[in-house]
From TrEMBL:
<feature type="transmembrane region" description="Helical">
    <location>
        <begin position="150"/>
        <end position="170"/>
    </location>
</feature>
<keyword id="KW-0812">Transmembrane</keyword>
<feature type="transmembrane region" description="Helical">
    <location>
        <begin position="69"/>
        <end position="88"/>
    </location>
</feature>
<keyword id="KW-1133">Transmembrane helix</keyword>
<feature type="transmembrane region" description="Helical">
    <location>
        <begin position="21"/>
        <end position="49"/>
    </location>
</feature>
<protein>
    <submittedName>
        <fullName>Uncharacterized protein</fullName>
    </submittedName>
</protein>
<feature type="transmembrane region" description="Helical">
    <location>
        <begin position="108"/>
        <end position="130"/>
    </location>
</feature>
<keyword id="KW-0472">Membrane</keyword>
């Protein structure tokens, strides 16, 4: 299986543009991780943000690694969310020219779709249970904090289904056969 093929300028594939809804979904995904990421950054800065004193020490232990872990988690989450843009942008089809050696080469659809579907599976396992957040115990949080954190994390439940829809749309666009024209 070849991940990269000849340079795109040699034989540029006729790829249909992503539909408007897919662009909107990809940009929405980038925003889903922001509320929880900002909340994590606040925890890393020493704000309790809804945790009791004991609960805060559990989530953000003193020293470098507690806050460092929260910052890293916030950055990685947003980076993963931003990668959804590759399913609707040209850089998800052709390696940008500024990248040495492989710049300009067409990316095999499987090189994009395998990580996308793996992401769908991981995100579904991670975030779907949060739909039941308010039925989960929040002993290490204040009642108001438990409610607010639920609303900050609830958008993440939509990440897996939106990513799945984008993966399907990407696959349809990257098919080798031409688009079918339907009459109305």
């Amino acid at each position: 299986m070849t991940v990269l093929s000849r340079p795109a300028h040699a034989a540029r594939p006729a790829v249909r543009p992503a539909p408007r809804w897919a662009h909107l979904a990809a940009h929405t995904i980038t925003l889903l991780a922001l509320p929880s990421g900002i909340w994590r950054l606040g925890l890393a800065l020493g704000l309790h943000l809804g945790y009791t004193e004991e609960g805060y020490r559990t989530v953000c232990p003193p020293g470098f690694w507690g806050p460092g872990y929260l910052v890293l988690l916030a950055v990685l989450s947003e980076g993963a969310a931003l990668s959804a843009l590759g399913l609707v942008q040209r850089w998800g089809e052709v390696v940008p020219r500024w990248i040495p050696v492989i710049g300009g080469r067409t990316i095999a659809p499987s090189a994009v779709l395998i990580p996308a579907w793996a992401g769908v599976a991981v995100l579904a396992v991670l975030w779907t249970p949060l739909a039941a957040w308010w039925s989960m115990p929040g002993d290490d949080m204040t009642p108001a904090g438990h409610t607010v954190v639920g609303f900050l994390y609830l958008p993440l439940v939509a990440w897996a289904p939106l990513l799945a829809a984008l993966a399907v749309a990407y696959r349809r666009r990257r098919r080798r056969e031409p688009a079918r024209v339907t009459s109305q």
